Amino acid sequence: MPVPHAVKWLAVIVIALAALLAGPRAEATTTCTITGITTLAFGPVDPTSGTVDGTATIDYSCTYSGGLLGGLYGVYLTGCIGLAPDDLGNVSPRTAINGNSDRMQYQLYKDSPRSNVWGPIGNATYTPLTFQLTFTILSNPQTRTGSVTVYGRVPAGQSTLSSGTYSGTLAGGLNANGLAYRYNEVLLSLGTYPASCQSGGGGGGGASGAGPSSTVTASVSNLCTLATASDLNFGSVSGLLQTNTDQTSLLRMTCTNRAAYQVGLDNGQNASGTTRRMTSGAGFVNYELYRDTQRTLRWGESLNVDTATGTGSGAEQTLTVYGRLPMQAAVGAGVYSDVVKVTVTY
Fold first, then answer.
1. Predicted TM-score of the model (pTM)
2. Strand 284-290, strand 103-109: pairing
């Protein structure tokens, strides 16, 4: 029996509406790119001290062009931004290198407490950062921009680092400093976000793109810290001073690895010319300080002449001061003392 004309038109309308609800249209496009990454500059790092933090910013842009009927559609987009391994292919920890080929460990995180390591696209252990965007109806084309913060940290406990400028490059690429995204394009914005930014995470469309390379920098300066200088105590001696009396004391210091240093001792507060003297307030006793056990190398403060020299290791080092109370004329009984200034040059 023939179908009435009114029923035929209804069938056509239903079919057309079903086509609109079916999902992505050939003329619609949604694209995302990373538009910039700033340098993560940690600044000065003291290898013997605590952690050093820094941040960088990644900017991204996503555009929806819906074609003729784009104003009736909305887009739900799930994107991921990945950060590359270092030049050795390592993610945790990453490293930066200086001119001596020393490697400074650092790490990049997705959160300000610095607990979630930021990995490349496709890394199951160290995942990328995920973000979501919505393009609303009645606005076509649309561009949405955003930025995310990269939280960096140089951990403590790297005492063997030497001085210099450290730098590292995180390469751009699809699975490095890159971006991947999936999206659902739906009529009247009646939809949901894809579960993942990558293939298999749902969504009617998606792509990935390479981002630019990024740079990490830090600097280490030579530093020496004098921890302790113990007293040199000659003890109780006869006032006649007819024999040499020898004793030692210790200087404990820490210098940056490979840092050349010189340690000088001045002549004290009671010197007569270059002769060191202790005083009781009523008289003087001569003494001397040396750099060697034989007590032949006087320890003074003239650089490159009579100072003690060495090279830092990043760990505490101990220097011995060899003291001598030489034979001399008898002095009155009393407590004799002097104060010597220690100077470290590096």
1. 0.81
2. unpaired
